[in-house]
Amino acid sequence: MVFPNFINFVAELPFGNGKKYANSGMGRTLFGGWTLSGIYTVRSGRPFTVNQSSNNVGTNMTGLPNLTGNTAGAETVDQWFNPAAFQLVPSGTFGNEQRNQLRGPSYKSVDFSLQRRLEFSKRIGAVLRWDVFNATNRVNFGLPNRNISDAVNVGTISSLGGDPRLMQVSLRLSF
Prior knowledge:
This protein has no helices and 11 strands. By secondary structure, the chain is mostly beta strands.
């Protein structure tokens, strides 16, 4: 099983002992209304199964190879698992590999949000928000290529499991 872990927080920033808004009467200060929030996400690698596309065991179905050795690999993008541990079987034959016995790379991400609430009157307000996803810009790799029939790419990682750092700014008006 994949066990995700999350740590999140929301903090009202302690600013706001400055000058009050002109003509607002709302009691808000010029520097008040800031909120910082974030989430740290960690999960173990997702399980996956090595398959064999050249093994036709039914309509739109891919069979499994035989497991004959130790699957431990270097766990790099060039070789996540040991492809030599698997043996091709003739088409229509069920291999002995167990489902989801291997694990892909782990995933870690830190996301932040900084927002400012603005009140222009009792009925008109706005929220200005800045979001940063994957703030540490950590490379999260996807699952390795697991088709044992593709001898060139099997065991290599050629995809990402998440986006690089992304930022967005938004403005929400309420009236």
